[in-house]
Amino acid sequence: MIFPIPVFIITGFLGAGKTTLLNYILYHQTTHKIAIIENELGNTALDSIVLSQEKQSLHIRTLQNGCICCNSHAELEITLIQLINQLKTHQIQFSQLMIECTGMADPGSIIKTFLTHDHVSSYFQLKGVVTVVDAFNAPYQFKHFHVTQAQIGYADLILVSKIDLINKPYQDFFKQLAYMNNRANIHPIFNGRLDLTLLDQLDGFSLPSQSSFLCQELPDNPLDAQVNSFVIRRDEPFDLHTLSPLFERLLVNFKDQLLRYKAILYIKDTPERLLLQGIQQVYNSDFGSPWSESEVPFSELVFIGIALPEQEFRKAFTEL
After folding, report:
1. What is the pLDDT, as a whole number, of residue 122?
2. Residue 134 in contact with residue 12, Cβ under 8 Å?
3. What is the pTM of this model?
4. Which ranges carry the CobW C-terminal domain (predicted)?
5. Do the beta carbons of residue 202 and residue 156 sit within 8 Å?
């Protein structure tokens, strides 16, 4: 068993196609033995046998292809620790973990479990959030259910279902999603069929290294979405002693609005780039590789949040 085990969070509103996607992944990938934590078992197509005794809080079901499905009424942290104990005692084996959120769930609290719990993070490595979006019903959902926009804001990979049901070109809808989250890859998906290499390439919670985020220039917001994203670039170095208080102030002032952020930072009198990423008020930072002689040092910061005042952020970093 190789630790840490990669973890993917699958989210999306009710009826978007999360279970269809999971079924496709389970039965068409051949590289990994996957474990799934499902919040809602419901009427899925996952034929299974309950292996554990009913007295136990964690129920492990073995699927026909050898993967497993886990169900627990305990908090996620407790469930993960139970899985760790069963892995260490060789009661179960798997090489990937997928967590399927309920349709109404904000994935922020799930992400925090992996970023703040040292014991959990030593055995599980969060690779990314995959959000399934229903193109046909999204305009109504965006207007009436705030959580649908938050699910997009947290995403590293956005999969758009039911684009065959919309009348206008789906590229227009993709522009809307890019306005809301300009760092996530966006792909159409039909009946859950996914290019599985997209999962293998997903590494949304690692700190960036050599390259910039390569976020695209964004169009004006076509549907007045609450969730927005923007990139701040700067060529002059930051003074760390003034940059740190600014970040702390922003995290406090916009604690209810910030969803995710990442940064590559050019720090004055420091040969290495400073790498930073966070979710809400939880973040980590570390110095990465040195700037090479052939590189022109730069800073690039990506912010995704709920109605973030872009110009206020730009002004604050420009004035440092």
Report:
1. 96
2. yes
3. 0.90
4. 227-320
5. yes
